[in-house]
Amino acid sequence: MTGRLGSRFAGLRLSAGEPFTVVYGPGVDDTFIGADHRERNLDAVLWHLLRAQSCAYVAYSSQRRPLYFLDPESEARSRPSGRVPAGAPSRPPAQPAGSAGAGYMRHPQLRGPLGRVVVRPPARGPGPAPAGARSVSSAADGTGSPTEPAPTRALSDPFTVMTLAGYLADPPHRTAVVFTEAESTLRHTDATRPLDTFFSDWARHGDYDHPVVLVFARPTFDACVSYVESLHGYPGLAARLRRQATPSVRVGYPDEAELHRLVQRMRLRDGLRIRDWRELDGVVRAMAAQPLTVKNWRSNLLSLDGTPFSGRELTERGWLPRAGRDTRPAAEQLDDLVGLEPVKGHLKRLRRRVAAQALLRERGLGTDAEAASPHLLFAGPPGTGKTTVARLVGEMYRELGVLSRGHLVETRLDDLVAGYVGQTTSRAHAVLDQAVDGVLFLDEVHGLGSENGSFERDVLKVLLARLENDRDRLVVIAAGYPDKVDEFLASDDGLRRRFGERIAFPDYPPDVLHRILLRYLAAHGLRWDATLAGQLLHVVTELHATRRPDFGNAGTMRNLSEKIFTEWAVRVGEDIGQPLTVADLPEDHRALLPRPAPDDGTLLSELDAMVGLAPVREVLGDLAKRIRLRQVRGRGLPPPPNLLFVGPPGTGKTTVARAVGAMFRKLGVVRKGHVVETTRADLVAEYVGQTAPRVREAVHRALDGVLFIDEAYSLTAGSGVQGADFGKEAVDTLVREMEHWNDRLVVIAAGYPHEMEAFVRSNSGLASRFTVRVEFPPYSAAELVEVLRRSAAADGYVLTPQAAERAEQWFDARRRTDPTGFGSAREVRGLLAAMESRLAGRLLADPPATDHSTFTADDVPPP
Amino acid sequence: MSGKKRILVDETEWYRAQRAAQNLKQVRRDVPRLLDEVRRRTEADQARTRAVLEERARRTEQALSGLAAHTRQLERDTGRRLREQSERLHRELRGTADRLERDTRTRLAEQRAALERELAAERDQRRRDIAGLTGRVDELAGNRDRAAAAARDWLADGATMAGLIADTLPHERHAPGRLDRLRLDLDTARRNMDAGHHEAALPLAQRAYLDLSELRVDIEHRELERRLAQGAATDALVLVETLITQNRVRPVTGPDGEPIEGAELDVDHWSEGELDELRAEVTERLSRAGDDATTVAELRELTVEAPQLEQRLGEIVDRAGMRLLASQLRVNLADSVAGTLSRIGAYELADGEYEDADERRAYHAVLEHANGNKIVVQVLPAPEGETGQVLRVLSYDHDTASERELRDRAEAVRHALADDGHPTGALESEPGVPDPGADDLGRFRKPEAAPLHRRPADGAS
């Protein structure tokens, strides 16, 4: 029955069980071309829908026409004589004004001494109300073609409310009241209070079996409710709508089929000419993706005024977007996309599957099978074309008949979260409303955080409810970083069941990034030669190789192009004829250019200046040689090793770690070789759930360099504090990250020998990952004297041989008193400070002495 | 059950305009017909008067034949002139075509002046005639026999004249005692004669006869004057009576100035009996005018007062007509208010009736709404001397008890009435709740069908 009204109303039910049904959306002002090719306005459509739901009587009310009807039965019920109980003598209905002729009274049953004569014609006739007046009218129209009934009577607002309330009171059959322009009725009525009372009473005491329909010309349900709230006159209605579970009926834009009917109607009635029948389907498809109503399109197409209908013409006139001019099927457009091969593969499979399902269904097969979910997950970094692909998925679904419009509505998960309690739900509904019959692209999804958790849970509840309720009319594509997508799915069991395929969007390869960068530069109006293009390729390749998980892909290329443009502009000034040169590369990017390979001898030169460390140098030298060998043999580079630095504090571990970073970079094992120094305090948080992100953050910072964890054993040592073992979480996370980034990360864990043993044993993964152990032996007394000499020299002091000898004795004495704690270069700093004090004291006591920079034996304190 | 509103609908302007347009006070509609009618009705009177006069003329002629030759001539001449005068004056009284248009007092003055002129002329003529007779008496001086014969003649003529006056003329009405006194004079002359004093008897007898003759003329004149006054009074009153009859039922003019077919104004009904009262008074006055005992002064009074009666008639007709229109206006207003309520409130007219089924009373209309609410519209006649209609709106709202909502609805009604051209004053709230039975109009209807024009005995509204 309602199918012929067109897809916008197919299967629609005007909700029962709720006091009010809100009809809203961009299409409420539209006209509707049904499958029977008849054109109807919303009044007529609602009439059919309500009739189909066995409403015997339908009354309409608007500000302009306070009470009107589309069928005589409904009209008759509004009159007292229309509800006279059977058997009672029925009175003739009041004749319309003017039918008895001028000069006679309107009510034939009234008689005076002069019969029905009017002895005093009023100054202004009480005859037919002026055109456009509010009216009670009856347009009996069983077929529901939109007619404009002639106004006869103009109800006053208080009586309108009274009449409508009476209409719903104890009706003999199912009865509906439709407020066709709810906004203006609510805003401009003179009977705000009675109307509010009516709504409140209805919500409280009404029989919800009788629909009360409010039509708002608002895009979203939330806007309707907000509007009602903004009027302040209808607290009962506003509160009820806020609470209302079902957000009622959204009337959207016409779909492809309806626009086809429009074009055919206009071809037959208005002489619309089609330039090329072959492209018609594609053009109408593009039309359907536009947020335009049938009325909009009719007006547009009428203004063609003889010019034939074609995609080019519609685009020229700005009715179709430039991009939308691509009227080719989605698959062809997808093939044209650069890169994204795995994505294309996925979508081809998806298309085959959906198409096969449709074919089977046409033959009545496979109808019992649960349809695979149309919802998709796009996992990948930003800037990899997910939005573009989502748009094409929408078009593909439309071509396959899964969606009627297939348009794309983009939003971020966080954008659905509102700042106030209760608004989140309505905001989410509002966005989902827009996406009905199309694709909701939900970007930057993530798991539930602790901060906005409850609001985000509201969003998920709405999302899940709508995925169920609008099962056949809504497709959601959730997108984000792979791990965030995982967290998102993990936040509710329902999500995992709803979403079907997961499509991974890898980072663009360097060549694609290079093309993108050049396109941006060209868009800036810049020129360059082949050499520079090659250099840029190298830079991009390096950027790609050293990218972090949040690498922006196309976005990064755009930022780089803007930086290059700025550098170029600063350099050339007004001489804009100059092409780009290497000099225009930003400083940090220029470092990515290829450099000459380092000489072997310089690999560990930084360690040369250091005292002792012979075993360290030996181990690292061996490691360098092994790597060299592999490089020379043309084998792939091994993953950079992770190192354990074992030794007492103050034995130069941090310094050596920096040297290792530089060495690995020179060897090409890592790209950058920088060192990120961390301790337990940096990695372990105080609250649940914060530790892992801290570890990950540190790892990401250290990518292509060295993550140096000093006193690494303390990560596990602090366990058991208040029962929370966040140190373990840190270690577990660290192990995972080491595995994930094993080719781009060097982790150096440093600490006392004994504690480090315990640390490595604490997690089986650690032992296998720290492949190189570097022992930092304690300094000998002689080495410490050398350190002391160098430290003193650094400050401009000189040690006499006696002083050196005395210092060695001092160190020996220290070692004897504290064998385990001793051996640190830090002892040197303490001694040097003491020597400085004594030198100062000596010089003060002996003013003639002039040598202020020579330590003598006397300056060394006794052990 | 709630709401009882009173709205004063001012109709002063309408009344003024209608009054001018209807011209109800103008009771003389068709003057030629009116004159014919009056003439037809006074013709009998005139015939009777003529017969009386002819009878008297016959008897006078008979009596005069007994007179001596010379006096007989004198009296015949006098009688002829009297008849001529009477006929002329009566003719003037009735014959003037425009007499109805002219002022009664003016006409009376003219009538009196004409009469005076006739009388003066008559006196002159008689003085000349009598001078001829008395001259011949002088010739008889010294001749006793001839004087005795002449004295006998005068005595005989005097007795004849005295008999004529006594028999045919209303001397006691117009000249009481004078005839007796002149008869004494005749007796005195006769005793002188019998005593042989012929010379003394002759002038006395002659004098007595001439006085009697004078008396006769005098009475004739006075009688003529009375008859003329009586005729005028009768005419005037008959005119009023005719007007009353003619205006008993009047056509009703519609707003377009054309008479409304089938509609008539029963003046006595709509004036609540005032017309019959007026008719009774006119009848009483007519009977007084027809009474010969009524004096000329009284007759003149009746004549002069007749136009006032006519004016009263005009006022009665006017009042009745306006009441009828006002009654129609009430039902019109009810119709209009019902239309307004139907238009703005989706009410529908259920019933309408005059109070006590009497069109001169208030009009009540009952309207029903589909939700069971009712409104009773009562259009009350204006209080005496005022030109407004009082519109009372009694609302029976079962769906709400909110005074504010009820007031809003009443305001909406008032606004709509004003928009529909009914000048309304401020909305008045009447204390109390409406009578629960006010929506039952069946109480106004008697078991038998109420005729359109009933005349209840009770007084004015």
TrEMBL record, chain A:
One of its GO terms (molecular function) is ATP hydrolysis activity. The keyword Cell membrane does not apply. CDD domains: AAA. Signal peptide: none annotated. Residues 72-156 are annotated as: Disordered. Residues 372-509, 639-780 form the AAA+ ATPase domain. The keyword Transcription does not apply. Residues 110-122, 130-140 have a biased composition (Low complexity). Keywords: ATP-binding, Nucleotide-binding. PANTHER family: AAA-TYPE ATPASE FAMILY PROTEIN / ANKYRIN REPEAT FAMILY PROTEIN (PTHR43392), AAA-TYPE ATPASE FAMILY PROTEIN _ ANKYRIN REPEAT FAMILY PROTEIN (PTHR43392:SF2). Belongs to the CbxX/CfxQ family. This is AAA+ ATPase domain-containing protein. It comes from Streptomyces capoamus. The lineage of its organism: Bacteria, Bacillati, Actinomycetota, Actinomycetes, Kitasatosporales.
From TrEMBL, chain B:
It comes from Streptomyces capoamus. Residues 73-102, 415-461 are annotated as: Disordered. It comes from the Bacteria. This is Uncharacterized protein.
